[in-house]
Amino acid sequence: MSPSWWRDYCQDDDSITPTFQPGNVAAETANIKGSIFNVRQAMLNAGYADSSYTIVVQTYWDPIPYGSQFRYDETGWTRQSTGGCGVWNKDADWANNTAFATINSSVRDAFNQAGLANSRLLDISGIVNGHRLCENTDGLLEERGLTSWTQAGAADNSEWINQIRTTSTITGPYQLQEDVHTNYWGQLAMRNCLRQAYNNGAVRGGSCYPSGGVDWQGEPNIALY
User: Fold this and answer.
1) Residue-level pLDDT at 13
2) Which end of the chain is more exposed for a tag (fewer CB within 10 A), N or C?
């Protein structure tokens, strides 16, 4: 996160802007479609007819909230030093409206272009809503009076996304590539969603959202619409 008096935004960085140009978006959409067909071809090569399995094409979760939904202010260093979410409001809005939206639109477009009858689209873009990094509807364990990820109420009150870490990735146990990926609860939420999509073999698609509380397996309750 750059100083407030000299804000350096990610959205207009030379290393970022080419990624979201129409030509590159179209190319990546084609790559995703090609990957779907590659899976089908691999199954055919292994002797599986299309009717004997279902391909589930999954979107990506939206890990950070909009700028107005952060629980830490932009001023000072708290947003990064405490929350591990050193993102300017303007970049957070861009990430939701452009970056994540474009990525998931490409997945959806590739799915539709592939048009395989034995495929289903599973949208998990909203699966961590209310539990995104530094969102004002959740908090760090200590902010919520919790001492463990697994104690009662932790799923409803904590973040399901790993912090953006800097110096703490040098020696572990955290790794830089884990930033803004789902943590313990986020992984369990996705497991719940995928189990519902599997539907005892009658595979279905849809969109997954948190619905509050945990189930008998200790997973966050997830609604698949």
Assistant:
1) 87
2) C
Whether 48 is in a domain gets the answer yes
**Contact residues for 7 (Cβ-Cβ < 8 A; gap 6+):** 88, 90
* Number of domains making up the chain: 1
The pLDDT value recorded for residue 105 is 98
Give the dihedral of Cα atoms 172, 174, 179, 181; nearest 10 deg: 150
The answer to the question of residue 194 being in a domain is yes
Q: Which amino acid is at 185?
A: W
Domain presence at residue 96: yes
d(CA 203, CA 196): 8
Question: What is the pairing mode between strands 119-123 and 206-214?
Answer: parallel
Q: Which domain holds residue 154?
A: 17-224
pLDDT, tens digit, for every residue of 198-219? 999 999 999 999 999 999 999 9
